[in-house]
Amino acid sequence: MENILIIDDEEMLVKGLRLSLIQEGYSVDYAYDGEEGLEKIKSGNFDLVILDLMLPKIDGLTLCKEVRSFSNIPIIMLTAKGEDVDKIVGIEMGADDYLAKPFNTRELIARIRALFRRTTSPFVKKHDIIKIGDITINIPDKIVQKNGKEIDLTNKEFDLLVLLASNPGKLYSKDKLMDLIWGFDFYGDTNTVNVHIRKLREKIEDDPANPKHIFTKWGSGYYMK
């Protein structure tokens, strides 16, 4: 049974969402502010966090960044604003997905299931260990090293890297990457792919502006040699 933590200050929303998730077979805990939520993440054993953007004590973006300093737990960020800039900032801070309020509970559950299906990258496990130049990817242990030094990646960054590295030379469009990595209709917003590729390059490339691992074919997509 997967254990989910909801961090949101809207009490009625939390109660309704918790009931729906329990009915789906999940174990659910909750916190009404960012400070309490952070303590529960540090002390608990959660498989996924549903995190509101606007929170008392510690806001969602700050909390997401803090969590990413010690954990790669999947995070779905909720935002009432629904503006692209908030979504992109949330992704840059390490969120795996976002959903604008008000939302359909069934859609949130579908996204939760998609995240759980893809956290172990089952669609690309051709090898246990992949080596490309100075990069070593240990798929079972989800460890990436560059010249022997471990690199800290988010779940989505890891999934993107494994997919591209497992299929060297294969070109993936942004839409295809959205389908394979996120697994649902992202309403045509492929900016999240650009953000993740940029963040991934910053972590694995010596010079992100002149990459030697992840290449862009303009107007077509991305690939690794």
From TrEMBL:
Positions of modified residues (4-aspartylphosphate): 52
CDD domains recorded: trans_reg_C
SMART domains registered for this protein in UniProt: REC (SM00448), Trans_reg_C (SM00862)
One GO cellular component term: cytosol
Residue stretches making up the Response regulatory domain: 3-116
DNA-binding region: 127-225
One Pfam family here: Trans_reg_C
Record's keyword terms, sorted: DNA-binding, Phosphoprotein, Transcription, Transcription regulation, Two-component regulatory system
Annotated ranges, domain OmpR/PhoB-type: 127-225
GO MF assignments: phosphorelay response regulator activity; transcription cis-regulatory region binding
GO biological process terms on file: regulation of DNA-templated transcription
Keyword Transcription assigned: yes
Function as written in the Swiss-Prot or TrEMBL entry: May play the central regulatory role in sporulation. It may be an element of the effector pathway responsible for the activation of sporulation genes in response to nutritional stress. Spo0A may act in concert with spo0H (a sigma factor) to control the expression of some genes that are critical to the sporulation process.
Name of this protein: Stage 0 sporulation protein A homolog
Native source organism of the sequence: Thermoanaerobacterium thermosaccharolyticum (strain ATCC 7956 / DSM 571 / NCIMB 9385 / NCA 3814 / NCTC 13789 / WDCM 00135 / 2032)
